[in-house]
Amino acid sequence: MPSSASGLARLRAAIVASALAALVCLPWTARNCVRMHRCALVSVNGGWNLLIGSAEGATGAWSPVEVPPACATVWDEAAKDACFGDAARREIAAHPARFAALVPRKLATTFDYAGAAGWYLHEANPAAFSARAKLVLSAVETAFVRLAWLAASVAAARLAGPRRKLRGIVAALAALCFVTEHAWWGVALLVVALVALGRALARAPLVVTATVATVVVTALTHAAFFGAGRYGLVVLPLATALAALAFDARRGAAAPLLTGSPETAILEVREGAGERCP
């Protein structure tokens, strides 16, 4: 939707997009209702994943878990997943500090390093895709991802809008994290820099708000369950698109965010863009 669209128009568009996405999944949901005796939208591994991220000995990443005694004789897949979820919630209630302490490790596992492509290729056929090939691909992937996040930090600092100096400082701290082992801190700081736009965030390019929303949802999801590099892949296309704004002169300091009456807007363009305004 264009930045001038009303809230109601945005809501209608969101409902239509969500309905179309749901329609794509409905045949599989109907299959689940019949075969798994539970109308899960796509799958039923939430309980299992929650237990992986909360059981005693959890590392924040994927690891095998022992079947809870209460679930040992539950054979239906959906019922077993529900049983695992109940066991996970009991673990969280019994050891909340242990569960909370795992959150930074889960986020680091999700955002610091992806590596899924090389891992899957090597596991599928080690003879055709050797350990060295896996290492090389992982190095190239890591370098590209970090460079994309660095450019996204520059874009966050250059976007027109309020608190430019504050955004520049936070973005610089984020960039520092991206050249260290703590990329997930950089992702968090980048979101802070973008949120610092305040109300101007609603008028920023769509990729800005989409990046903020996707990073936040991804972080909250895997802070609760467990982290893995493949789960961070969902934010990389947005990070790359956001990085492109770092090289867009129209998003620099002189690009105004138009407010007020049309007459005021014209004055803002003239004062902000100068000779670049036709």
Can you describe what's shown?
- The chain has 278 residues and is an all-alpha fold.
- The chain has 2 domains: 7-101, no CATH class; 116-247, no CATH class.
- Helices cover 63% and strands 0% of the residues.
- The chain contains 12 helices and no strands.
- α2 (46-52) runs parallel beside α3 and α7 crosses α11 (236-244).
- The longest helix is centred in the N-terminal third of the chain and has 29 residues, at 7-35.
- The radius of gyration is 23 Å and the shape is globular.
What tags apply to this protein structure?
globular
Mean pLDDT across residues? 87
Q: Estimate the helix proportion, in percent.
A: 55-70%
- Pairing-aware structural class of the strands and helices? mainly alpha
The parts where pLDDT drops under 50 for at least 5 residues are 252-269
Note the run of SSEs as H and E: HHHHHHHHHHHH
Please count the helical segments.
Answer: 12
Oligomer: single chain
| Overall 3D shape | globular
Proportion of strand residues: under 5%
Structurally, how many domains make up the residues? Answer: 2
Tally of DSSP β-strands: 0
User: Biggest sheet, open or closed, and with what strands and sense?
Assistant: none
Q: Please give the alpha-carbon distance between the first and last residues.
A: 26 Å
Radius of gyration: 23 Å
